[in-house]
Amino acid sequence: MTDRDEFVSASELARMGYCERQVAFDASHGQRVTVEQERARDRGLKAHAVFYDESRRIAAASAAKGRCFIATLALGECDDTRALRAFRDLYLRRSACGRWFVGAYYATSPALCCWLETRPRAIRALRWLLRGLARAAGAAVVLKVGRDHG
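Request: output the structure for the sequence above.
Response:
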């Protein structure tokens, strides 16, 4: 890694977009940072590190396959399961409440899947419920993707 490959924070990127003259001035004469700016930067970097670690943990858990996912147990690998995953990624993971829900789901689903494996009627009822949720999730995903890329 060269000196030019340094980490650039979101705040620095925003400052570059807001005033390129300030960026050129700082490059020529050095950047002057107040104690309060230093503290705010440190708080921001810590918050970003926590978010990054949490995202990596959730991504690693979602990459795993098997019976720990209730939708996969009830529906198998299909469009409905993919719609639910896309909803998780596009909506739930983007808020603290949604990330809490996903974490709780990952924590409780292995035991629930073990219980469901011996109860075919419960799986059938769950399948009906999940298909309805998947239709709603799929519609929300189509709206989100269309809005972001339209």
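The mean pLDDT is 82.
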